[in-house]
């Protein structure tokens, strides 16, 4: 048990979750009640009227036991008519009855002319009961008994009823009408809902519910088939199923009495026979305490409508607690809707391990969905029209089988089951799958199929897993190489952030190389600087920089060209305001004036030289001062005496000694010839110190020597400086002047430095000249500053500023050269980072792609064969005791028995109950309808995966039984398509259960229960994009990728025909349900719009005769109109039309005329749409459009307009502006009619439409475009109206209605795709639509641009020549004429289509 604070209740219109505690299974029990409706459920209440009304005939004069035995033995009965019963209803001609019937019609606002014959009969039968008249079927002559005898009748009586004829209560004509109607309804229910509705009913119970309402319910049911013989009135009936108790009646009686009535399986004998009389006796015993209840021993054959699923199917008993909990969690859901899973890498190693291959081709959106399912997730796969849902389902199934899982594929529509089954058969997986529904569930068919599937394969058909793995590894190696090359080409030139995701702004290697190839010639011989772009530099940055350069170019053009040379020395980048501007030029004038004051000798002297000279003069001045100071000292020492030589004085000083001593003094005094004596005498003379002591003399001598030395050295310095004759004062004056000039030059230097003005050595002459140039360019000064500002910014961002400055000065094209230079720089960067990129030229790429394609095909084939060749090992099969009797055989033993005895007397249900767990080892995939699951699959049987198709139309109670049997759930559908409607309702409008919930599907539940969904994005159905464009824009935000149109084929697309009809509104305009339980626009008139009906039939006949090889479907927006069109069309069937109908009849694309509610899942070459509604005879337009006015009415339009593969013809009596109702449905209808008439979307701006300069994906695309147009071709870029576009579409004026070819470049869109999309699927799909695709590889273009163009043009020229040769008459569209035998066989069929 588990507790959740929810209870599921069922109020009018919605399912509401109310807070409370409940236990496991409560939700399922509540849901099961929705399977039983007493109103409109033929299994609970079936009217047994005469004349074949209600799609049923009664059996007369037969022995039920004999009829049952013969049918159970597989034998046929010939159906025999009887005389016309109208002769026995003369009492209806009385005035009393006629008056009562008129009042009845008036009460309901009806007229007899507006009713079908069956409806008239039903109403008259009801009236007979109200008037106390005997029912029509009871006044048939006694010679024909509806109440049949028991088997214990006399031998003569038995003998009379033991032939092969089955007597009915209908005349020949009524019998034929009844049988045709029965077969039509059977086929429609089977095709649209997967329901078996054609039964032989044995016994009826007349009983009353607690509220006194009376019911007539069939007790036993056997599925039967009708066949028409070669004679006009030759018909047979045979059994196609087992005899079963009516489970709906059993449930109703259980609810009413608290006791389950007798069940027929308790009365089956050892040979599989049933004693029906004994069973009836038991039933009579069951009801004996209810006086008003009785068993009717009758047999009726006909259509018994019901949900097809017994109430017990959903009850939790028999299912695992785990599965019950999971199913109820799914029904409850979460608080938020599922979100799209987003982009996924489908090529990485993990993905390849999860999904190693496919059974059918898969695009990346399908691949991503398959991967998520392979990971074990519950998932919603949103499949918009034509996006390959069945293809995806087949691949889901094959992947599950490869991983050893079991799969239940569930769908209501026979077409959906047939498509998947056919595709599984076509790829070679048929033996691993079993269809267990409709005709496939016929015992003989099923047993034969099982016998074939359990046979061992011949050894030569087996493939081992190792064989597959070897081929897979080879394929993966090619995939890796292709992806590696794509990675190198898509790699960012500058990977600053390390991100792998590609967007339109990324500067990638591919773009760099192809663009540089175009620019290469422009910069030949140009010395391109090494740029320094910032990390993660991308196309946005490039475009910003190029925009800046464009502004620079514009400024340069607007400047006086004679002033541009100033920029070579002027680099001031601050743009001054007016005040600053005035200050600058005021200062400029001042500086200029100061520099002009320099004498001529100093004008060319630069500041540095002047400063050096001044420094030298300062030193000279210092020497002059020293000289003069030393001279003054000498004067004080020796007066005016002649100045001795400093060297001579130095020698005497050394001889005189430095320190005084007695010996020296004596020596100098006593030996006059000595050197000391001479030195003493020398200094005494010059110093005039004859009587001084030795120490004083020595000191003065030192002063004298020093002064002499200073004087002599200073004199040398002064003389060498040229200032020997100049006084220090004069030098000082000169220094003062020089310092003033230096200040002038320093101020000038500071000023020109502030202006970023380069003047070389800062001489007065150069400064004055530069300032004069600036003064002359005063009017351009601010623009020059702007230019400098831009150049400065560019230098800081990307470098190359000086190169750009030179380009500006030389008036060269800046933007082109910078762009070319940058792309050269980018390309060099690419070559350094990815040197291997150049090894993948076109030849290598084509060779590698071809190897990949071949390996992929071989891998798929081997993958499928490996799955198909698997056979279960005996040790893995369920173990059962061996038995000798059929009734005791189980599992493998029972399967072996039916293989050897295909007509074994065992029912299909019994076979499944006793051997399905073994059968799943042989056929792990089951294809079934909800009702067949309930019929045949035991609750204890579990599948690993259930896949539910067309889930938007499947109710939760229809799907939940299959979900309860499965571990993982995948729901496939489209929330933008047809919602579900409940079909357990009467066709009488007063009995519609208004409280029924009509809005929620299992898809809606899954969208709330599962966290993620996957949308399939590639649309394959439409041969012309206009067929899906409206829906893509209106419902799918233009996310669907549609194949571009090859030509303007007038046969294709959407056509509008104005029917000019008048709508007969009658007294009421209601919504009711048709025989399938689908809501339908309904008018009291049998012929709502006769003019349009006639026009529609004309269109149908025209389309058949014009295009007999195209399948056709007709969708009518009103049930009565559809019936009337069908009648009119039947009247027009001739041999040609019959041949057409016969050609398509037994194919999935059979011809149909349907109400719009029943067309989901269908696709035809041509869809003809009849809108029916319009103005009435008074010119008044009622805003009532049947189900289109209802909730999700717009989804019905979406389904209606997306069924066609080639052509839609809209036949309408409405002008779009006639529709004024503001509901979503009518407004979508209005917009579609407008689109059909004009070909234009009301909102013409679509998400994927290129704008402005974005027509071209890359510059090389435009280069090819311009070259081809220059050579006489008409070239359209980005061909298509969705996200799937062809880079260039090439046309020629000789063939203006179509493209010669498409040119695909390996650009960004190409590189971002998965390997299969990029290198296999895209081109294959385009070629399948008639396109010739020529491809140009970027590396080849980079290496030899002109050479690649020549190759491309040569190929296009050849295509043009071939096109000219092929001119001729178009072939006539025909199908084979019917032979006489074909015609006879066609006429023997119950249905024409």
Q: How would you describe this protein?
A:
- With 1393 residues, this protein is an alpha/beta fold.
- It has 47 helices and 30 strands.
- The protein has an eight-stranded parallel sheet with strand order 10-17-11-16-15-12-14-13, with helices on both faces. The protein has a seven-stranded mixed sheet with strand order 3-9-6-7-8-4-5.
- Helix 21 (646-656) crosses helix 23 (675-687) and helix 21 (646-656) runs antiparallel to helix 24 (694-721).
Distance between the termini: 53 Å
The profile of the biggest β sheet is: 8 strands, parallel
User: Structural class per helix/strand content?
Assistant: alpha/beta
Strand percentage: 5-15%
**Uncertain regions: pLDDT < 50 for 5+ in a row?**
1-20, 983-997, 1067-1083, 1384-1388
* Number of DSSP-assigned strands: 30
Overall average pLDDT: 86
Q: Report helical residue fraction.
A: 40-55%
**Radius of gyration using CA atoms only:** 52 Å
Discrete helix count:
47
């Amino acid at each position: 048990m588990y507790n959740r604070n929810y209870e599921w209740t069922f109020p009018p219109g919605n399912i509401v979750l109310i807070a409370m505690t409940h236990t496991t299974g409560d939700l399922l029990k509540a849901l099961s009640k929705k399977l039983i409706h007493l109103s409109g459920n033929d299994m609970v209440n079936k009217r047994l009227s005469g004349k074949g009304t209600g799609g049923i005939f009664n059996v007369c004069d037969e022995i039920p036991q004999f009829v049952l035995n013969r049918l159970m033995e597989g034998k046929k009965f010939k159906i025999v008519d009887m005389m016309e019963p109208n002769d026995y209803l003369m009492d209806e001609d009385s005035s009393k009855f006629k008056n009562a019937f008129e009042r009845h019609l008036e009460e309901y606002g009806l007229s007899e002319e507006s009713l079908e014959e069956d409806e008239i009969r039903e109403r008259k039968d009801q009236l007979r009961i109200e008037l106390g008249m005997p029912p029509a079927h009871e006044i048939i002559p006694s010679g024909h008994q509806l109440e049949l005898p028991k088997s214990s009748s006399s031998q003569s009586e038995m003998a009379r009823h033991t032939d092969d004829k089955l007597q009915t209560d209908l005349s020949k004509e009524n019998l034929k009408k009844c049988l045709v109607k029965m077969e039509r309804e059977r086929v429609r229910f089977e095709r649209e809902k997967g329901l078996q509705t054609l039964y032989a009913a044995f016994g009826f119970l007349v009983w009353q519910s607690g509220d006194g309402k009376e019911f007539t319910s069939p007790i036993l049911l056997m599925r039967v088939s009708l066949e028409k013989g070669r004679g006009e009135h030759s018909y047979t009936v045979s059994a196609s199923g087992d005899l079963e108790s009516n489970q709906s009646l059993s449930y109703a009686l259980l609810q009413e009495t608290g006791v389950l009535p007798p069940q027929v399986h308790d009365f089956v004998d050892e040979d599989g026979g049933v004693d029906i009389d004994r069973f009836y006796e038991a039933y009579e015993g069951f009801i004996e305490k209810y006086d008003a209840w009785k068993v009717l021993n009758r047999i009726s054959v006909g259509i018994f409508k019901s949900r097809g699923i017994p109430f017990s199917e959903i009850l939790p008993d028999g299912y695992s607690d785990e599965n019950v909990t999971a199913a109820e969690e799914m029904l409850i859901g979460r608080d938020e809707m599922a979100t799209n899973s987003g982009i996924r890498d489908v090529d990485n190693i993990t993905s390849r391990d999860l999904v190693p291959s496919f059974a059918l081709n898969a695009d990346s959106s399908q691949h991503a969905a398959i991967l998520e399912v392979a990971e074990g997730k519950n998932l919603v796969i949103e499949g918009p029209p034509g996006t390959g849902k069945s293809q995806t389902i087949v691949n889901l199934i094959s992947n599950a089988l490869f991983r050893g899982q079991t799969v239940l594929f569930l769908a209501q529509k026979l077409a959906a089951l047939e498509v998947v089954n056919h595709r599984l058969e076509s790829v070679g997986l048929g033996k691993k799958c079993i269809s267990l529904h409709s005709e496939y569930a016929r015992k003989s068919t099923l047993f034969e199929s099982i016998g074939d599937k359990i046979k061992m394969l011949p050894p030569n058909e087996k493939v081992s897993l190792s064989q597959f793995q070897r081929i897979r590894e080879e394929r993966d190696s090619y995939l890796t190489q292709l992806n590696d090359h794509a990675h190198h080409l898509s790699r960012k030139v500058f990977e600053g952030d390390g991100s792998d995701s590609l967007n339109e702004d990324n500067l990638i290697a591919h773009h760099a190389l192809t663009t540089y190839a175009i620019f290469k010639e422009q910069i030949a011989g140009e010395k391109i600087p090494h740029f320094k772009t910032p990390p993660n530099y991308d196309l946005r940055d490039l475009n910003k920089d190029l925009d800046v350069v464009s502004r620079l170019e514009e400024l340069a053009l607007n400047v006086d060209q004679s002033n541009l040379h100033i920029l070579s020395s002027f680099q001031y980048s601050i743009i001054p305001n007016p005040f600053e501007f005035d200050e600058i030029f005021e200062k400029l004038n001042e500086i200029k004036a100061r520099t002009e004051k320099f004498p001529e000798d100093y004008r060319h002297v630069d500041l540095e030289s002047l400063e050096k000279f001044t420094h030298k003069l300062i030193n000279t001045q210092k020497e002059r001062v020293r000289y003069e100071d030393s001279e003054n000292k000498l004067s004080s020492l020796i007066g005016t005496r002649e100045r001795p030589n400093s060297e001579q004085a130095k020698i005497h000083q050394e001889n005189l000694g430095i320190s005084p001593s007695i010996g020296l003094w004596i020596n100098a005094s006593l030996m006059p010839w000595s050197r000391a004596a001479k030195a003493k005498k020398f200094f005494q003379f010059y110093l005039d110190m004859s009587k001084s002591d030795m120490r004083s003399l020595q000191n003065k001598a030192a002063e004298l020597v020093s002064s002499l030395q200073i004087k002599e050295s200073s004199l040398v310095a002064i003389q060498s400086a040229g200032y020997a004759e100049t006084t220090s004062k004069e030098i000082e004056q000169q220094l003062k002047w020089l310092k003033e000039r230096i200040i002038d030059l320093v101020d000038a230097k500071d000023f020109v430095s502030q202006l970023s003005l380069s003047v070389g050595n800062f001489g007065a002459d150069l400064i004055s000249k530069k300032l004069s140039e600036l003064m002359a360019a005063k009017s351009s000064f601010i623009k020059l500053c702007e230019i400098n500002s831009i150049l400065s910014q560019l230098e800081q961002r990307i470098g190359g500023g000086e190169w750009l400055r030179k380009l500006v000065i030389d008036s060269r094209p800046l933007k082109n050269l910078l762009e070319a230079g940058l792309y050269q720089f980018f390309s060099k960067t690419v070559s350094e980072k990815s040197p291997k990129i150049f090894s993948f030229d076109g030849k290598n790429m084509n060779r590698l792609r071809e190897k990949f394609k071949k390996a992929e095909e071989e891998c798929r084939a081997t993958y499928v064969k490996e799955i198909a060749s698997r056979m279960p090992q005996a040790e893995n099969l369920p173990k059962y005791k061996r038995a000798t009797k059929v009734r005791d055989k189980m599992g493998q033993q029972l399967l072996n028995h039916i293989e050897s005895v295909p007509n074994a007397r065992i029912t299909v249900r019994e076979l499944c109950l006793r051997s399905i767990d073994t059968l799943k080892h042989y056929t792990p995939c089951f294809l079934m309808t909800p009702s067949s699951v309930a019929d045949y699959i035991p609750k204890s049987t579990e599948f690993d995966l259930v896949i539910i198709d067309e889930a938007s139309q499947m109710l939760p109670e229809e799907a939940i039984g299959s979900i309860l049997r499965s571990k993982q759930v995948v729901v496939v559908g489209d929330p933008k398509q047809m919602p579900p409607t409940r079909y357990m309702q009467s066709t009488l409008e007063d009995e519609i259960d208004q409280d029924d919930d009509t809005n929620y599907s299992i898809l809606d539940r899954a969208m709330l229960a599962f966290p993620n969904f996957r949308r399939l994005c590639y649309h394959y159905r439409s041969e012309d994009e206009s067929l899906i464009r409206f829906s893509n824009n209106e419902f799918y935000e233009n996310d669907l990728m549609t194949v571009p149109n090859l030509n303007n084929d007038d046969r294709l697309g959407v056509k509008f025909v104005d029917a000019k009809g008048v709508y007969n509104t009658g007294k009421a305009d209601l919504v009711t349900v048709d025989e399938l339980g689908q809501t339908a626009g309904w008018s009291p008139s049998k012929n709502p719009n006769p003019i349009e009906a006639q026009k529609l039939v004309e269109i149908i006949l025209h389309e058949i005769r014009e295009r007999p090889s195209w399948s056709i479907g007709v969708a009518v927006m009103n049930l009565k109109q559809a019936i009337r069109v069908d009648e009119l069309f039947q009247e027009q069937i001739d041999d040609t039309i019959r041949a057409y109908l016969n050609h398509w009849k037994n194919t999935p694309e059979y011809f149909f005329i349907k109400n719009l509610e029943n067309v989901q899942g269908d696709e035809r070459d041509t869809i003809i749409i009849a809108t029916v509604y319009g103005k009435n005879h008074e010119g008044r337009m009622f805003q009532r459009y049947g189900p289109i006015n209802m909730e999700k009415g717009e989804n019905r339009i979406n389904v209606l307009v997306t069924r066609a593969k080639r052509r839609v013809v809209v036949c309408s009596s409405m002008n779009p502006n006639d529709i004024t109702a503001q509901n979503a449905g009518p407004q979508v209808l209005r917009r579609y009619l407008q689109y059909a008439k004009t070909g234009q979307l009301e909102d013409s701006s679509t998400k994927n439409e290129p704008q402005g300069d974005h027509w071209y994906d890359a510059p090389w695309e435009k280069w090819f475009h311009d070259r081809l147009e220059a050579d006489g071709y008409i070239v359209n870029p980005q061909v298509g109206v969705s996200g799937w576009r062809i880079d260039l579409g090439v046309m020629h004026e000789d063939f203006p209605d179509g493209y010669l070819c498409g040119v695909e470049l390996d650009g960004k869109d190409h590189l971002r795709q998965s390997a299969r999309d990029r290198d296999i699927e895209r081109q294959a799909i385009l070629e399948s639509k008639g396109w010739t695709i020529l491809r140009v590889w970027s590396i080849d273009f980079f290496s030899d641009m002109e050479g690649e163009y020549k190759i491309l043009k040569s190929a296009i020229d050849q295509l043009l020549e071939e096109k000219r040769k092929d001119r001729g008459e178009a072939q006539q569209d025909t199908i084979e004429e019917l032979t006489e035998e074909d015609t006879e066989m066609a006429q023997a069929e119950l249905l024409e289509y």
